[in-house]
Amino acid sequence: MPLRTSLLAFALVLSGLLLAACGSGPDDDGRLQVVATTSQIAALTREVAGDRVSLTTLIGPGVDAHDFEPDPRQVRRIHDADLVLRNGIGLDDFLDDIIEGSAGGRVVTITDGITPQPGAGQADGDDADPHVWHDIDNAKQMTLNIAEALAEADPDNASVYDQNAREYAQTLDETDAEIRALLDQIPGDQRKMVTNHDAFGYFIRRYDLEFVGAVIPSVSSQAEPSAGEIADLQDLIEEEGVRAIFAEQELDARVARQISEDTGVRIVDDLYADSLGEEGTEAGTVHGMLLWNAKRIAEALR
Fold it and tell me: Is the full-model pTM beyond 0.85?
């Protein structure tokens, strides 16, 4: 049995023992019990629901979603949830066994209605890029899907969820305008991006940036670059006159930093790709995170 499968099985068994020992699960204050698999989904849910739901986030801020393992307490939260909100598109597929085996409520994939694209460095037919929230239109669709899921689970507050979703869509549109104003200042021949892994494809396409390459040439952070791929990327950086390498806070950027040193190109290592910042910080919301990234990209490439 593969290690991840055996760990999930162990978590399910242990969760069952906890449920048997502790009774009906977390304290219920009367609010809808909602589980969000990622920090982005949790942040969008807070915008739509406010304090009308009791929200649990599985993959929290600063955690690499590609390398996440749920613990027994989280499995129990899923079991007790009225509603589980997930990303899909391969990002949280490792939760399938747990969700299918223990989710007590409805499970909704909030990327429904979004057409997944390959990563910026991937060919059509390659694995779809799950980082869809880096495009404002996709984030708006996710917000709408969350509002609809909450309204179905909690009809009494349906009008509130709908109004909050519409207001947040306006916030996202305003953020989109701010981002465009920032990135429009970058000259055409300086709009070239090298990233730590191929996670910014939707952002790059939306704002007419140019993808040169990624240190980890995959939409998954679990891939490993070969020595030859690193050497080729260094050559590309020099040939294309790339001004900066961009890395994420939640991933180890040692290889990216080494490439930066070898090529003499600046590294910006505080972007967010798979995660948001902590709640209450500038990058703790989806719109705040997108603007945070845009500010650092614009500053480095102007």
Answer: yes
Tokens of 16: 């069952």
Give the residue ranges of DSSP H helices in 117-276.
136-153, 158-183, 201-206, 227-240, 254-263
Cα separation, 87 vs 274, whole angstroms: 12
pLDDT in tens, 112-152: 999 999 888 887 767 899 999 999 999 999 999 999 999 99
Q: Which residues pair with 107 in a beta bridge?
A: 84
Are 142 and 132 spatial neighbours (Cβ–Cβ below 8 Å)?
A: yes
Helix (H, G, I), strand (E, B) or coil at 248: strand
Q: In whole angstroms, what is the distance from residue 214 CA to residue 218 CA?
A: 8
What gap in Å lies between CA 123 and CA 127, rounded to an integer? 9
Residue 295 DSSP one-character state: H
Sign for the pseudo-dihedral over CA of 174, 175, 179, 182: positive
Helix, strand, coil fractions of the chain, as percent rounded to 5: 50, 15, 35
